[in-house]
Request: fold
Amino acid sequence: MIRFLKKKAHGTRNLVTQIADLINTATAVERPSIELSIPTGMNSVGINSSIFDKYRLDFVNVLHTLTQNEMDVVLFLRYKDVFVTFHTVLYDAPYNCCSYIVSYNSKSTHTEYGQVIVFFKYREDYYAFI
Reply:
């Protein structure tokens, strides 16, 4: 049996009794279940938008080499994954971080760095154009 007395503002109580009271309170209070949000693109932009002019030709060429139609692609300026939001170079609202800088392993297993130009959704999957 654990016996530990501690002086509290409301008087001296047995610490085990205090813990038992907290556990009983926690089990009596019903907590709602937490559902995490699914990853999603935010701030949709059209492929013919003027802010995408500088990168459109390269983007469309890459899509055609992968035999994908640009009409099946939806572009996004931000991507939210549960608690973290990633931005693109094209996102123009002020923020305090550079969350558009990414690192990745190249084919030669070297770490490369780049900037996310735009996020895009093809069918049900999200990708980044770097």
Observations:
- Residues 15-28 form the longest helix (14 residues).
- The helical segments are 15-28, 53-65.
- The longest strand covers residues 73-81.
- The chain has a mean pLDDT of 76.
